[in-house]
Structure prediction request, 513 residues.
Amino acid sequence: MSERGAVRAVRPADTPDGLAEEPALTPRLSLSTLHRVWTSAWNRPVVDPRAARVGIVHLGIGAFHRAHQAVYTEQAAAATGELCWGICGVTQRTAAVLEQLGPQDGLYTVLERGDGAAPPQVIGSVREVLFAGRTPAEVVERIADPAVRVVTLTVTEKGYRRDARGRLDHTDPVVRADLDGGPPRSTVGQLVRGLQRRSVRTGAPLTVLSCDNLTGNGTVLRSLALDFCAALRPAESGPLADWIDSSVRFPGTMVDRIVPAAAEADHEEVRRRLGFSDAGLVVTEPFRQWVVQDDFAADRPAWDKVGALFVPDVTPYETAKLRLLNAAHSLLAYLGALAGHELVSEAVADDTLVAAAAALMTEDAAPTLDLPTGFNVDGYIAQVISRFANPALRHRTVQIAMDGSQKLPVRLLGTVADRLRAGAEPRWAARAVAGWMVYVGARRNRRGQRLPLDDPLAATLAAATDSARTPTALVESLLGIRAIFTEELAGSAAFRQLLVPQVAELLSGLDTR
Ligand code: CS2
Prediction:
């Protein structure tokens, strides 16, 4: 791994996930141990990590990126022999990923679980890790580096810092500080400051690819970048906006792979099967999908050679995935967590819940979709349910339940609005919303166990729900949050009529103790 980028040797004792307790007998994965341990050739990186140069900056290097775009990138390098697409991964909120991957020279294992799982594979495409909180200037430098031709992002819905209208939230103190010229801490700030430096230094064209679960993720990111630009001093903002317009592309993408948090049993399995400990391990399903809008400013990795689909417009794929898979995921997460199911696979094994998830997709979401040509919606829905049922994936319902304020509008409320406008009753989508309302209001499950409220709007949600004594009051006060529900939805009597009885029923289900 390159010297730059604050990749410091961190002793195993410093790692956050308990690997410190590891007996010294199990070496830690790194370039030097990779060949020493009894790893079979097919577990090793498919390209030599030492040879790869950084050509991609990835903002938000969590487990999802490591199990998805980084794998495609490595396989594309193997398919073409191009060694110029190493990844500089930027970790945003904490130094945890730097501490996991730094001492491992960026290497980590992808452990697939479920039918058709490939052998565990060490991935070497991450060549550098930066912690933006510690070295923000290096992040800006890397984005400006002409060797970098692609910036990818997985910063989750909340990482975009949008206001209720979907524009850059100028009231957000982090955004404000970035606009005032401080070392950029917001994703959009990092990106635009990097673009600014690039435009002045070389003007080399760049593609910025949002890989988050947002409707129109490319368009959203472009308009946020331009919002940031517009708020700069006039001398800076005009030329920069012109350059972005002419030299930067923001294609849309649809990404899909289920990547639950790795558990201790997964770490143990890697130690047993590969003979090293790996603090950067990611666990995932065999399935993966990537649809990318074919609109690049410069060259790119040959992701199309390893399964990514390049199309003129990703919107139909993206909307289908968000309104089918992600909506059903959220329904199972809220209703499943309330019913006391720890895992998605357990929620799917519950006949009532799986029926609700299937009905949400078939009856409510599917009629709103403008499906891509040849898309078999019934086959897709059946495949989604069987992916959720994968018993080897320990995907916790509370992990998916987090950030509901950001996820609901994208996954469920579009379906609700479209169906209501068509004069139909989106009963199942409303049930998922009711599940969320009860989840955030009660914050405990049927067994009386506490459920975490992990959401950027947690304080607003708690304030809205704490004084709500009846189902109607709970529905009313949550519908009043304009950052989540539009005027149109909040004012819909039909939506209320679907919500109130379902909220009442779900709340009464909690009162069994
Ligand atoms: C999940 C997604 O955590 C969540 O909200 O619904 O991360 C889901 O697993 C992925 O989008 C699947 O591609």
Q: What stands out?
A: The pocket of D-mannonic acid is lined by residues 213, 256-258, 326, 329, 400, 407 (CB under 6 Å). The longest helix spans residues 315-338.
